[in-house]
Amino acid sequence: MCHDCSPGAAVPPVESGAPSRRTFTQFLAAGAGLTVLAACTPEAPAAMAPSSTSPSSPAGGAPAPAPESTTAAPPTEVAAPAAPSPAPSPSAALPRQFSLTDPASPWLVVNKHRPLVPADYVPADLVPPNVAMTASGEAALLNSTTAAAAEAMFAAAGRDGVAMVLASGYRSYGTQVGTYNNYVAARGQADADTASARPGYSEHQTGWAFDIADGGGACSFQPCFADQPAAVWAKANGHRFGFVVRYPWMFHPVTGYYYEPWHLRYIGVEAATDMVARGIFTLEEYFGVEAAPGYP
């Protein structure tokens, strides 16, 4: 932001009628020097520091000699102010902290600027959750922490009369190669990059994320899924079990993907609840990493 700055008030010039050094000398010669000098030369206050706008008088009361330069050096050297520290991310307020780069961490942030390392990472604890599902093979697997949380969430949804289904879970690097290439072949790379992650950049490969469907089967993987009971319930209650909607509505300039109300991501109950309480919708903002609208 720019600020208009007004110059300070100009220092008033010394009036031409002020007594000069020669005048004082003539008065002294006439025998009235001490009397006139006392009347015309004010005594400087003893405790006043020298000012850059008016010369001070020496202890003897005689006028100070004219300075050599109009620019006075500062009495002490002032250090330049330190650069402000970056503001801490909202997640920094939580008592427990986790890695943002380790694929085995629930706080891992993977996006178009943050690939998995290693690119062909495989979770060591993949298990099939005990939930209703239409997925099969590797897609029926999640890491053990996410699987346990999913079981609790699906059961709670069921008690509320909502049928939630696991539609797609873990996806290996090799599977992602085929998935992404199919998108590119059908829609071109630019469009594919808005809908499918490049190999090594997918949350599905971490075991921390999965896609849900509604028990009625309506609108699977379509925008209208946002209005289905499973999506509505997950958005309102997922944080109670550690889940957030990873790619929310109208945040594609931050996440790099358009709205996916079916894509849930586990980050832990404490962090997910804190995000909701603060009104924060993306992991990028919550964990303090840069937005990733596209690949570098």
Give me a quick take on this structure.
The protein is of the alpha+beta class.
Structure write-up:
The relative contact order is 0.12. The chain has nine helices and six strands; from the N terminus they run H-H-E-E-H-E-H-H-E-H-E-H-E-H-H. The two termini are 29 Å apart. The strands form two sheets. The protein has a four-stranded antiparallel beta sheet. A two-stranded antiparallel ribbon has the order 1-2. It has helices spanning 21-29, 33-40, 144-159, 173-187, 189-192, 229-237, 252-255, 269-278, 283-286; strands at residues 126-127, 142-143, 164-168, 209-214, 243-247, 260-266. It is globular and about 45 Å long. Helix 1 (21-29) packs antiparallel against helix 2. It has 296 residues and is an alpha+beta fold. It is 27% helix and 9% strand.
Key phrases:
two-stranded antiparallel ribbon, globular, 27% helix, 296 residues, alpha+beta, 9% strand, single chain, 9 helices, disordered N terminus
